[in-house]
Amino acid sequence: MSDQMHPLAPHHLPFFIPGPDGSDTLMVVMGLFLVGTILWVGTLYWKLHSLPERMAHRTHKLQFEIVAVLGLISLFTHMHIFWIAGLLLAMIDLPDFGSPLRSIAGSVERIADATPGAPDAKPEPEPDLDEPPVAHAGAKPAAKEEVRSHA
Fold first, then answer.
1. Long-range contacts: 79-83, Cβ < 8 Å, 24+?
2. Where residue 11 falls among pLDDT bands split at 50, 70, 90?
3. Which residues, at least 6 apart from 87, have a Cβ–Cβ distance to it below 8 Å?
4. CA 38, 40, 43, 49 torsion: positive or negative?
5. Helices 80-91 and 51-58 sit at what angle, rounded to 10 degrees?
6. 116 — alpha (psi -120 to 50), left (phi > 0) or beta?
7. Which has more pLDDT, 123 or 110?
């Protein structure tokens, strides 16, 4: 073998032709491009797939957990109807019936002077009008209710 080039070969070869040492520059560049593109498309897919969950979480929706479960079901079953249902559910504002009902219950408890879970208060015994009031230790003596005569 001689190191001379064939007389019909071009003197300048394009960059995509591998050199005599076996290095293929185009294959290395395209391999890096392919790996980068796969990572970018995968990231885009995950962001798009988690869109309903992020929407429901950002707006503090009551149905956040349902949207998250629908997203997981659509991810593992590859049935896109669950993703669409999660997206629609994340966009809808469901009315909050719990807060007004809790407020009403709290108001009714305050009106009834009752607390939830507390035992019923025992009514205080009514004082007997025939007996004089009993003074407790450390208490001030009660004012006498007898009428004094000025005679």
1. 83/49, 83/52
2. confident
3. 51, 52, 55
4. negative
5. 20
6. beta
7. 110
Q: How confident is the model at residue 97 (pLDDT cuts 50, 70, 90)?
A: confident
Q: What is the pLDDT of residue 38?
A: 98
For residues 129 and 93, the answer to whether their CB atoms sit within 8 Å is: no
Q: Which residue, chain included where needed, has tokens 């009315």? A: 95
Residue matched to tokens 């408890």? 109
Cα 86 from Cα 54, distance rounded (Å):
11
Instruction: Indicate yes or no: pTM above 0.85.
Output: no
pLDDT value of position 122: 62
Range 19-58 burial, b when 16+ CB lie within 10 A, else e: eeeeeeeeeeeeeeeeeeeeeeeeeeeeeeeeebbebbee
Q: What is the residue type of 47?
A: K
DSSP symbol at 149: P
Residue 148: predicted pLDDT: 60
